[in-house]
Amino acid sequence: MFADYHLHTYYSSDSVYPMEEVVKDAILLGIDELCFTDHCDLTIRLLGYADASETKPPFKKYFREINQMQKRYGEQITIKKGLEIGIQYETIPQYQEIIREYPMDFVLLSIHRIDNLGYWNRRFQEGKSEAEYYHAYYEAMLKIVKEFHDYSVLAHLDLIRRYDNHDGYDVMNDREIITEILKYIIADGKGIEVNMSCIRYDIGDITPAKSILELYHELGGRILTIGSDSHKPIHLGAYVEEVKEELRSIGFKEFCTFENMKPIFHKL
């Protein structure tokens, strides 16, 4: 099973990749199953909005196009419906409403901003030491997962690492709170994502870090998805198959796809 469970199209503000082209390219690459997970960040405008003042992405149009792709290409590839939600604690009620209104197969939970401050432009990190902003990031994550349950897996759990100075800071400095997060999501029936954008961002490790994956396995975590975090053709499916050997070396025996928000386990 070759599945890519983190894909962006022209419905995301940081991609211009047409949805049908993603499907056609995936078929050529031999991908068996894909799940569209376009961005839904309620504080960040997405492509497809009627106007800049609109506060929600064009869900009806988005899911209608996925339905069309399923009908058109369903005999060649399995296509699932999903979103990547960029949640902040204050937006939890709005996301709960969206997920009730639009049934999906899969939801990636991401924390792209805290207090409306982004990491990519280092506004969140400003005025904080490395240790302080890492810890603040995990504190925000723990608060959210304890309150919000309408998701499938945590996306790129150590995303903050992508935007630090790559000086080798040890994510296990926050082992205690990361352990608390992992124990909570395991008990809640949720999982984590292995995000292969780590290669193109030259992080020098898997995302999340191998040490986090080892801890997740040690704690009994089983639910894992693998995604390229594709935004353009060169990203699609990249390194998704290659990482499986690394996961086997940690001790994982399975990875997951999803249907109707339920994990389906496949042998690695």
From TrEMBL:
- Broad enzyme group: hydrolase
| Swiss-Prot/TrEMBL catalytic activity | L-histidinol phosphate + H2O = L-histidinol + phosphate
A GO cellular component entry from the record: cytoplasm
Please verify whether the record's keywords include Amino-acid biosynthesis. yes
E.C. numbers: 3.1.3.15
Q: Which residues form the Polymerase/histidinol phosphatase N-terminal domain?
A: 3-89
Question: What are the protein's UniProt keywords?
Answer: Amino-acid biosynthesis, Histidine biosynthesis, Hydrolase
Similarity comment: family membership: Belongs to the PHP hydrolase family. HisK subfamily.
Q: What is this protein called?
A: Histidinol-phosphatase
